[in-house]
Amino acid sequence: MKVSIASDHAGYRLKDRIAALVRGLGHEVDDLGVFSDVSTDYPDHAASASAEVSAGRSQRAILICGTGVGMSIAANKFDGVRAAAVSETVSARLAREHNDANVLCIGERIVGPEVADDIVRAFMTAEFAGGERHERRVAKIGALEDRTPNA
Ligand code: RB5
């Protein structure tokens, strides 16, 4: 599948490592940067990759900043994006199996490189479990995109 990958300055080293890992798993990687530690704003990079997922041009995205938190907050503003900030492998797997998450957010300042590798492997190999209750709940997440503001 096609996977868009992006980071801010706090995540670009891990982003380069993860891009290589995802290619090694047999996926097409769309590396949207950044490529240095020059300070940037994480919402810009969350937006570039999340737009690809929202438009259906990529099936998944992986976003890396200092904590993963800012990236996930920004990514979840995009229709159809279900982004999860994850620091361990069980949540990475369950984000796919229960939540059908399509965007993974990791903090380079939070997890070590080998933990990050395992998180990415778990996220990229787990499948949505489906079934009536998970499908109903994910559909309710989608319905929140259409609600009246503040209702
Ligand atoms: C940048 O210093 C840092 O705030 C950013 O990478 C991220 O952790 C935000 O959530």
With strands numbered from the N-terminus, the spatial order across the biggest sheet is: 2-1-3-5-4
What radius of gyration results from the CA coordinates? 15 Å
The stretches of 5 or more residues where confidence is low (pLDDT under 50) are none
The CATH superfamily is known as Sugar-phosphate isomerase, RpiB/LacA/LacB
Strand content: 15-25%
User: What are the distinct ligands in this entry?
Assistant: D-ribose
Largest sheet: 5 strands, parallel
| Quaternary structure annotation | single chain
CATH topology label: Ribose 5-phosphate Isomerase B, Chain: A
CATH class designation? Alpha Beta
Give me the number of helical elements.
6
End-to-end separation in angstroms reads 37 Å
Shape: globular
* Residue-averaged pLDDT: 97
The run of helices and strands is EHEHEHEHEHH
- Helix content class: 40-55%
Counted up, domains total 1
Q: From the 3D coordinates, which CATH architecture would you assign?
A: 3-Layer(aba) Sandwich
The assigned structural class equals: alpha/beta
Say how many strands there are: 5
How would you sum up this structure, described in words?
This protein is 45% helix and 16% strand. Helix 4 links the parallel strand 4 and strand 5. The chain starts with a strand and ends in a 7-residue tail after the last helix. It has one domain: Ribose 5-phosphate Isomerase B, Chain: A (3-Layer(aba) Sandwich). It is an alpha/beta fold and 151 residues long. The relative contact order is 0.17. D-ribose binds next to helix 3.
